[in-house]
Amino acid sequence: MRSVRVPRSRTLRALTVLAVVTAGTGVVAGPAAAETDPGQVSGWFNDLTVGAAGAPGRVAPLELSSTGATAPRVTVDLSGLAGVATVSFPDWCVTEGTSVTCPMPPGAIPDEYGTVNGTVPLVFRAAPGAVHGATGTLNYTVGADGLGPYTHQATVDVRSGPDLLDLVDERVPGVDVGDVRDVPVAVVNAGDQPAGDLRLTLRFPVGLQPASYRNCRYGVDPVLATVVVCTVRGTFVPGVRHELRHGFTTTVGPATLGDKRITQFVEPLATAGPLPGNVRLTRREADRALRLRPVGEPMDPIAAGDAYGSTYLPGVHGAFDVVAVGATVTGAVGDTVRVNVGIRNDGPGVPDNTVSGGSTSAMIFTPPAGVTVLATPPGCGPTQDDEGSAPTAWVCWQGTVFPAGQSFTVPFELRIDGPTGAPGEVRVYYDYPRPDDDPTNDAAPVTLG
Prior knowledge:
seven-stranded mixed sheet, 37 strands
């Protein structure tokens, strides 16, 4: 890495930017335009905070992306970081004064769409004499042959004090119900001063059963996730990685179904924020305490990150059965009647859409012949065969979690107009997170008695 020092100071905040450069802004007619298309190139860099003197360096990625462009590159202007931070670049970048130009990183190859993506790793340190609160700007310009340059700006702050980062970012495929997994927990202090005791907050989605520790409290939030808040004693010096030996033992219970993301958040206990407000925390009987132990040599530099970490478990194939619940309507022509239709989760798996958002309990109701639906219930929407035609069915949604043993039922007000005929139907509207284990009960009749 080549180090470039900049001599002056300015102000800094965190901001993610995206620069997209295309050929011209006007419309070019004729086939020649397609033949000479210079492609496009983009780049982005997150705002960054570095520790004051004595803190480990921070590695931050400058991302470069190109589709069909010739000689894509990014030029970084360091003059705005004078007196705030120094930056080291890879050897394949070219320095001219306070300007550094980096081509697409060596080894970057096109993806399936023909786009080449590369990362330029930049190492930041506080400049000599930079104090807490110093702020500067980093300007970077993305370009390629035949493309006009496009400039964006990021900010770099200097902060004194402890800066705890969570180092966990894992994807664990192939997890099955009944497995016992040791979820990693790892933190590092990227600041210039030691951190004392810390608070670790974890969230295990519904179905996952975390182990018990004496120094942790446990509760269940409104979407049935287990929230764990642990007070961990110790001194966490800058640069030293600390881990939970053997990981946080977690059982994949029978309610586990679909995508799961276990999150964790670390903060100094002395400056910790409020406890989770949507859960009642209690202690469990336990024969051990959760301790984070130092591992390996001090880290310098440290990859840019934040206080949040996660372990992602994709597509757990748990068993479940969602059942349609039909009904019979009794009345004479001209009567207004109410019918309750719905679906029920017979479990044991719990559809859980908290990772990506959206409903898990959804049904579609087609009324029997000879009736009119008088109003659309809350949480439902009408469907129709053609634009401008009368509704033929109603789709209803509710909740991001569908607990085992619970039903989702909707009342519809119907007017019996006659003549009666074919029965209606209530049906599971869509298969989430996959088709359930008994498709024969995914629909039920709704009849006029």
